[in-house]
């Protein structure tokens, strides 16, 4: 594999390289996850972005094992991310949560473990329901919040690094004010900030601030509302489709690339990692075929100018917990 086809960013504090192009595993069905993961690794993906909340980590682990058994990669060749769910923020629940994830994935360590949301919900025994999600079934009543200080959760995350269970720790869906507070007491600083990031939601001030503090950025939902069409989240069905924007279509035509490739290139050319999901072989290939062209600074600016602060993954909307206000 040509190294230029797997560009990386070095994470602080240990200089672990993280690929800038990965496979996101949100919404990947259990019955397809193993084969999709195996196919992605075979194609050349070296970053897998998982989470206990996605409910498919056991099947993801089966796909990883297939790749190991086939001799395609060794453990040190791939970068595996997972995330701590909201119901496991108490210190005593953090290590069991990552141990469950490691067991399901069939791994002895994670390359990166993120706090999924800066939201602490009441603990749910995994023997009762796993993943715990946001609400109780069948009435969809929201799980009540638990008053767990973010500092307690972060210190427990640091202990995971001390124990060798994870190589890097980070945060997700976190605003700048909370990051500033975290950095005042963090013994081990966050390596990565993962956020919703698209041409409709560039979050440039947050991105620049996090980078200035030594954090790498991973952007999810890079295709904006396209990722949420059909879900009962925000107004994704009525928002203008990103790929139909004249700016995107014009640049796409100029390079002979798809709108998806242009948007992904816009992100990685600015050193923001991307984790698009696909179960289609051709699209998996397409989402990595980004390295035979370069966008100009003017084109990058034009795409960024599409920003309209349009956010879809907002717990203030679907869980009445307004963390971004």
From TrEMBL:
<feature type="active site" description="Proton donor">
    <location>
        <position position="54"/>
    </location>
</feature>
<comment type="similarity">
    <text>Belongs to the aldo/keto reductase family.</text>
</comment>
<dbReference type="GO" id="GO:0016491">
    <property type="term" value="F:oxidoreductase activity"/>
</dbReference>
<dbReference type="InterPro" id="IPR023210">
    <property type="entry name" value="NADP_OxRdtase_dom"/>
</dbReference>
<feature type="domain" description="NADP-dependent oxidoreductase">
    <location>
        <begin position="22"/>
        <end position="307"/>
    </location>
</feature>
<dbReference type="Pfam" id="PF00248">
    <property type="entry name" value="Aldo_ket_red"/>
</dbReference>
<feature type="site" description="Lowers pKa of active site Tyr">
    <location>
        <position position="83"/>
    </location>
</feature>
<keyword id="KW-0560">Oxidoreductase</keyword>
<dbReference type="InterPro" id="IPR020471">
    <property type="entry name" value="AKR"/>
</dbReference>
<dbReference type="InterPro" id="IPR018170">
    <property type="entry name" value="Aldo/ket_reductase_CS"/>
</dbReference>
<dbReference type="InterPro" id="IPR036812">
    <property type="entry name" value="NAD(P)_OxRdtase_dom_sf"/>
</dbReference>
<protein>
    <submittedName>
        <fullName>607_t:CDS:1</fullName>
    </submittedName>
</protein>
<feature type="binding site">
    <location>
        <position position="116"/>
    </location>
    <ligand>
        <name>substrate</name>
    </ligand>
</feature>
């Amino acid at each position: 594999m040509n190294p230029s086809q797997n560009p990386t960013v070095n994470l602080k504090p240990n200089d672990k390289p993280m690929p800038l192009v990965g496979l996101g595993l949100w919404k990947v069905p259990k019955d397809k996850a193993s084969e999709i993961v195996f196919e992605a690794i075979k194609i050349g993906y070296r970053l897998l972005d998982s989470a206990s909340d996605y409910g498919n980590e056991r099947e993801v682990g089966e796909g990883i094992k297939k790749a190991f058994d086939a001799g395609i990669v060794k453990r040190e060749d791939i970068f595996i991310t997972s995330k701590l769910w909201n119901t496991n923020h108490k210190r005593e629940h953090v290590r069991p949560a990552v141990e469950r994830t490691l067991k399901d994935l069939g791994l002895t360590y994670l390359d990166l473990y993120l706090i999924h949301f800066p939201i602490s919900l009441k603990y749910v025994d995994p023997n009762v329901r796993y993943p715990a999600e946001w609400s109780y079934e069948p009435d969809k009543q929201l799980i009540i919040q638990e008053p767990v200080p973010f500092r307690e959760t972060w210190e427990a995350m640091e202990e995971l690094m001390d124990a060798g269970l994870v190589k890097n720790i980070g945060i997700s869906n976190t605003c700048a004010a909370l990051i500033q507070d975290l950095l005042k007491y963090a013994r081990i600083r966050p390596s990565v900030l993962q956020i919703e990031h698209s041409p409709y939601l560039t979050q440039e001030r947050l991105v620049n601030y996090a980078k200035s503090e030594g954090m790498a950025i991973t952007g999810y939902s890079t295709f904006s509302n396209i990722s949420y069409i059909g879900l009962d989240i925000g107004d994704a069905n009525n928002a203008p489709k990103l790929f139909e924007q004249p700016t995107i279509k014009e640049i796409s035509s100029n390079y002979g690339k798809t709108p998806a490739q242009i948007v992904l290139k816009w992100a990685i050319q600015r050193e923001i990692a991307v984790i698009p999901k696909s179960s289609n072989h051709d699209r998996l290939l397409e989402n990595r075929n980004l390295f035979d062209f370069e966008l100009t600074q003017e084109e990058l600016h034009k795409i960024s100018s599409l920003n309209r602060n349009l956010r879809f993954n907002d717990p203030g909307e679907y869980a009445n917990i307004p963390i971004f206000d």
